[in-house]
Amino acid sequence: MARRRTAVVRGKALEGVRKSGARARAGLAHLADRIIDIAPRVPVRDLTTLREQFPGLGPEEIADRLVAGAAKATATVGAGVGAAAMMPVPPAMPTELAAEVTGVAAIELKLIAELHEVYGVRPAGTLAQRSTVYLNSWSQERGIEATKPSTVSAAMNSRMKRELRQRIVKRTVRNLPNLMPFLVGAAVGAVMNRRDTRKLAARIRDDLRKVQVPWDELPALPALERPADALPEHALELDMGAGRHRKDDDPG
């Protein structure tokens, strides 16, 4: 009798684990789709605009400013979720976590796109095609993929979207311990996000330096079009621009 009861309990537990796993996979797939959907909505400053906002600075100096601003922005997102986790009953933590993942992704996608501008390697193609390149760069944590014609030859098709979704899910799963600051509070959530954004930027910059085109050798490029349904600028601000730099925005 006891063995039968134990078997029933074990069976129910395994069934619960299977259902939880299925829900988790579905949630991650939905999250990946959200990131794919927001990528074309991220407003990107082109090189001309960045040079106007940072007069007198060279590529590395502007890149430093962009990384510092992005790290500060993702730290702010992490601090918000960390603070929510410290509440006696965390309000809708899965929703909070999804908001953090997508918020950080949007900030880092903007950073990646603008680093490509700074290093003179803007991907060819339409807004949708460039967004695909930046998503590939973000999910693989590499910058050099943007130089491969195959990544920008066509707008995202179903196979490309499926492969990209899988990479985003893998990256999200890998980062979940860093994106769930339960019981550690806002300070640690902020530190984790700041650190990870800087690590991502360092990898991207290393790759972009290998294919960098000096500004005086760049052909004339059209201004980047602004997405019709662009995400709000204030949530994605990577740096305050000329004349508004603050000491705590400096790289380091």
From TrEMBL:
Which domain of life does the protein's organism represent?
Answer: Bacteria
Instruction: Give the span(s) annotated as Disordered.
Output: 232-252
What name goes with this protein? Uncharacterized protein
